[in-house]
Each structure stands twice: as structure tokens, then as C-alpha cells.
Write a structure and sequence with these properties.
With 75 residues, this protein is mainly α. 31% of the residues lie in helices and 0% in strands. The longest helix has 23 residues. Pfam families: SspB.
Length: 75
């Protein structure tokens, strides 16, 4: 069946807001995959020279290096 409507963001049309929290589910799923991978590697190890690169955002309120003195945050 053909869709005669050009409902694209370029034409100012956006999909309707979902009644289901898909974004939250996806975020939870991504965290679950990461946790499963880390748990697996902690038990089984990584093959050869493989390794993970982990990065952390420390500019999020309430997050930081506990060894560092607190820094002033302007509002």
C-alpha cells in the first residue's frame, strides 16, 4: 500500500508522541547489555589483547572524583 503523505521532519511533520516509554526502555536495555558484558568478562575474561575503554561524564551534578575537592558550580 502506498503512502501518499510526505510526513517527514523536513516538511514540518513529526511522528505522534508515543504513549509507551520506548526511550526509557531502550536506555534500560543499553545499560543491561553493558552490565551483562562486564559481568561476563569478570567471570570469563577477555581473549587475547582485547580490552574495554570506559569513559565517565563527571560534569553531571552529583558526580565527580571523590579524591578531588568539590568545585564551585555557578547557577
Amino acid at each position: 500500500m502506498a503512502d501518499d503523505h510526505d510526513n517527514t521532519p523536513e516538511n514540518g511533520a513529526f511522528p505522534p508522541e508515543s504513549l509507551l516509554p520506548y526511550e526509557t526502555w531502550l536506555e534500560d536495555a543499553y545499560r543491561g547489555v553493558m552490565l551483562s558484558a562486564l559481568e561476563y568478562v569478570s567471570r570469563e575474561g577477555l581473549a587475547g589483547e582485547h580490552h574495554f575503554y570506559l569513559t565517565f561524564r563527571t560534569d553531571v551534578p552529583g558526580c565527580g572524583d571523590p579524591r578531588s575537592p568539590p568545585r564551585a558550580v555557578s547557577a
